[in-house]
């Protein structure tokens, strides 16, 4: 496994992704999702909104890292807020 | 067929009743359009074949003829380039290696893709749509992204430079593709067939092998064609995961450039030989292909 | 779609496939993420660098240029191949031995290994031994793909059109074949023009396969590697260096694992975004069109 050169931040990153997937699965078993239409132009399920949120979070981070000198924590905070907004009203 | 013919004739009759243009003139016009499209098609095919013809032409010439003068067809027909390839084990083993890993990949892929495609076409389950999308993203992931970790992954599990390594690596894009095509075909088989079989007391495995697979035969044929195609033409991963024992033919071809220049004749002959397996495969599935290229969903 | 049965045991049928693909997809992807935040010097010597590689990659002029080249290339070949493929599908014979023969001939370029495609065109366009290069020279045209960037571009586009238009043509051909003969008869009775037949009967039937064709062509052209590598080696200069090639040079040639991993991830995210947009479009189109079909 040493060739995978794990670091603490990436380990935390992948664990949180795995935790999210597990959480979504349990949530889905407890109360199945219903497809609905929010402010996004297409009807989405919970999983779709999570995916859209994560993908846009990745691009928010890239934008902040590449083209501004802001701290990455700001990007993280913005992404988290955006993800919550998306899950609730998207 | 006869129904179709009858219909066509009826169409002609309507035409002659309603059309101001006389039937003879109309037939004349369609005949002209027909010939025009044939000529266009012929032109396209001719242009398409030209580079391949040139390769074949070169493969039948000696290097001195290739470099010496411009000849549109071989003046002194020679098969030396081909004989050279077939008598040198380091050359023909390249073909054997390529075919071995392609065959392994087709076998592995079809075995795991059939049940998975059945699951996607018949059931809904938690995360099914996201799983399907994730599979498709693998189809789209540029292999260049994965080159280094692949090398290290297969090295660390001791599979480096084996045929199975390349076969497994090609699963990355071939399994998603196979599931995509097969799912389309399976969805077009009515669900009642499954239900009837279960009522008749068939177990799932027996139903799947005895009834279901024969029903989607042409779909499987088309899928195998695609699996062959993408595994056969891929080189980047195959090259990275092999060194000597399982080297694909595409890699061995780079050996033709030596210090004394490029051995054009052998290069061309090797190139021609890589086309032949493809022709054989497409010949076997030619009747299903038109249908399957729409991936089952038209 | 609506007659599918909810059954979570279906996961058992998917599991073998999942394990195989995950082995080939997830472990390498995790490794790439790990590389991207470190300066990897050797097996046991690596330093955490945080987001530095991402910053430098996003601001790298050569990569931005390669990215722009890549996008223009993909758009150009789509603009040529899609109409040309439809046109060829329309004039292909519908039945009989001619249909089979044309089908086999047309698929030929698809079944040639990608580096051999590069070799074929490299030979074909050489001024001394290639038919096209020689012919153009005899006609008095200045043509040299190793010196003139314009010639190199034209040749690569020509090669890609030669190589991949058949796929579009085949997809459209199979789409056309699924149109019932009765539709055409109705059109004949109405004395519809050829254009009207194409616009109102053939094109609507083709939308589905065309989306697949655009998707496949976009993805494959976006990761094109072997053909231009063999044909021009990315030259002259870096005029035909596309994304995959810059990436491979960086990762394998220069052994810069960290930067190339960061670059891979950016590349992958772009592909992911585009394929998600395409995928959602396809699925919504199918949902609108028919109650069943498609996962």
TrEMBL record, chain A:
<keyword id="KW-0812">Transmembrane</keyword>
<feature type="transmembrane region" description="Helical">
    <location>
        <begin position="6"/>
        <end position="30"/>
    </location>
</feature>
<dbReference type="InterPro" id="IPR018678">
    <property type="entry name" value="DUF2160_TM"/>
</dbReference>
<feature type="transmembrane region" description="Helical">
    <location>
        <begin position="51"/>
        <end position="84"/>
    </location>
</feature>
<keyword id="KW-1133">Transmembrane helix</keyword>
<keyword id="KW-0472">Membrane</keyword>
<dbReference type="Pfam" id="PF09928">
    <property type="entry name" value="DUF2160"/>
</dbReference>
<protein>
    <submittedName>
        <fullName>DUF2160 domain-containing protein</fullName>
    </submittedName>
</protein>
UniProtKB/TrEMBL annotation, chain B:
<dbReference type="GO" id="GO:0055085">
    <property type="term" value="P:transmembrane transport"/>
</dbReference>
<feature type="transmembrane region" description="Helical">
    <location>
        <begin position="163"/>
        <end position="186"/>
    </location>
</feature>
<dbReference type="GO" id="GO:0005886">
    <property type="term" value="C:plasma membrane"/>
</dbReference>
<feature type="transmembrane region" description="Helical">
    <location>
        <begin position="132"/>
        <end position="151"/>
    </location>
</feature>
<keyword id="KW-0813">Transport</keyword>
<protein>
    <submittedName>
        <fullName>Carbohydrate ABC transporter permease</fullName>
    </submittedName>
</protein>
<feature type="transmembrane region" description="Helical">
    <location>
        <begin position="207"/>
        <end position="233"/>
    </location>
</feature>
<dbReference type="InterPro" id="IPR050901">
    <property type="entry name" value="BP-dep_ABC_trans_perm"/>
</dbReference>
<comment type="similarity">
    <text>Belongs to the binding-protein-dependent transport system permease family. MalFG subfamily.</text>
</comment>
<dbReference type="InterPro" id="IPR035906">
    <property type="entry name" value="MetI-like_sf"/>
</dbReference>
<keyword id="KW-1133">Transmembrane helix</keyword>
<feature type="transmembrane region" description="Helical">
    <location>
        <begin position="35"/>
        <end position="56"/>
    </location>
</feature>
<dbReference type="Pfam" id="PF00528">
    <property type="entry name" value="BPD_transp_1"/>
</dbReference>
<keyword id="KW-0812">Transmembrane</keyword>
<feature type="domain" description="ABC transmembrane type-1">
    <location>
        <begin position="95"/>
        <end position="285"/>
    </location>
</feature>
UniProtKB/TrEMBL annotation, chain C:
<dbReference type="Pfam" id="PF00528">
    <property type="entry name" value="BPD_transp_1"/>
</dbReference>
<feature type="transmembrane region" description="Helical">
    <location>
        <begin position="67"/>
        <end position="90"/>
    </location>
</feature>
<keyword id="KW-0813">Transport</keyword>
<dbReference type="GO" id="GO:0055085">
    <property type="term" value="P:transmembrane transport"/>
</dbReference>
<dbReference type="InterPro" id="IPR035906">
    <property type="entry name" value="MetI-like_sf"/>
</dbReference>
<feature type="transmembrane region" description="Helical">
    <location>
        <begin position="260"/>
        <end position="279"/>
    </location>
</feature>
<dbReference type="InterPro" id="IPR052730">
    <property type="entry name" value="Sugar_ABC_transporter"/>
</dbReference>
<feature type="transmembrane region" description="Helical">
    <location>
        <begin position="102"/>
        <end position="124"/>
    </location>
</feature>
<dbReference type="GO" id="GO:0005886">
    <property type="term" value="C:plasma membrane"/>
</dbReference>
<dbReference type="InterPro" id="IPR000515">
    <property type="entry name" value="MetI-like"/>
</dbReference>
<feature type="transmembrane region" description="Helical">
    <location>
        <begin position="197"/>
        <end position="219"/>
    </location>
</feature>
<feature type="transmembrane region" description="Helical">
    <location>
        <begin position="152"/>
        <end position="176"/>
    </location>
</feature>
<protein>
    <submittedName>
        <fullName>Sugar ABC transporter permease</fullName>
    </submittedName>
</protein>
<feature type="domain" description="ABC transmembrane type-1">
    <location>
        <begin position="67"/>
        <end position="278"/>
    </location>
</feature>
<keyword id="KW-0812">Transmembrane</keyword>
